[in-house]
Amino acid sequence: MFSFVEIQCQIAAEAGMIIQRVVLNSRPGKNGVPVAENFRLEQSTIADTIQAGQVRVRTLYLSVDPYMRCRMNEDTGSDYLLPWQLSEVADGGGIGVVEESKHDNLAKGDFVTSFNWPWQTVAILDGSLLQKLVPQLVNGRLSYFLGAAGITGLTALLGVREKGHVAVGANQTMVVSGAAGACGSLAGQISRLEGCSRVVGIAGTDEKCSILVQEMGFDAAINYKKGNVAEQLRELCPGGVDVYFDNVGGDISDTVISQMNQNSHIILCGQISQYNKDVPYPPPLPPDTEKIRKERNITRERFLVLNYMDKQEASVLQLCQWIQEGKLKVRETMVEGLANIGAAFQSMMNGGNIGKQIVSVSK
């Protein structure tokens, strides 16, 4: 005699391949703080066979990023991001290995990536929407293609180049908020490589500040949870701030902007302090801060890396070269197991990561 569960599993197996996936279980609400329980791990099935042009891939790594908070709402407030639907599989940046292919340009064993990788252990995907990866470009560290050699690295590099107005010999000082995060840790290093003479980071723990200075070449770092940030910033940037790579928004950004020089530049990359609030993106500055910005002719423009994808190939090669040469130090916070992706997202939103937050799904 078979139990009901055994019979159900047998029926599912006959219907296709059994997989695990993570779906959106609940919405935190526009002003709510996301928790791991907003996501749910469940068993599902995919077809046993693939069609022409498709590949079956096994997921290796998934990326969790601050922008995903917007996708947890019914309305993302963005014209380029679609919301996740309740009880539907979530998706984002991912890397996997091809296990079966009916696509002309992809073969079994190839490593591939996509911006819209489903959060599941195995998937059937359209091969034309996947990008083939060359592990040797990142010294075999495949997960780097989700961070330093992926969209995060592109955001840091092109943000500095397109909006920072950094020039060799200009004696510029850059401040980076969220400096120990995925993008900030790269942006500070890249600004130095591109010509900034002084780089100061702002982070939330002494450990993060130590890593920024000792490992990543920042000149100094401020723990914003200790002491007076404005006073520390004046001491560390006596000539004022010329470029500000803004990952957080809020009070920290108001403090930095108050010490920016005439004709300086804000690279508006992210506003993680505002993502749990029902405000437009980018949120408007407080009146006093906006007055300073206008009086000093400080540029503050939203930077969206997707608008610069014509520069993707050359920029990725530059990032990979710096990684190979040891000029770009990479930090990752790796969490094991698809079941823990919700907890990884919650931790990242609370600042628990150093560098890129990655979930390792399989080996």
TrEMBL record:
Transmembrane segments: none
Enoyl reductase (ER) domain segment(s): 34-359
Subunit note: Monomer.
Coiled-coil parts of chain: none
Stated name of the protein: Prostaglandin reductase 2
CDD domains, per database record: PTGR2
Originating organism: Calidris pygmaea
Localization per record: Cytoplasm
Record's keyword terms, sorted: Acetylation, Cytoplasm, Lipid metabolism, NADP, Oxidoreductase
Catalytic activity: 13,14-dihydro-15-oxo-PGF2alpha + NADP(+) = 15-oxoprostaglandin F2alpha + NADPH + H(+); 13,14-dihydro-15-oxo-prostaglandin E1 + NADP(+) = 15-oxoprostaglandin E1 + NADPH + H(+); 13,14-dihydro-15-oxo-prostaglandin E2 + NADP(+) = 15-oxoprostaglandin E2 + NADPH + H(+); 13,14-dihydro-15-oxo-prostaglandin E2 + NAD(+) = 15-oxoprostaglandin E2 + NADH + H(+)
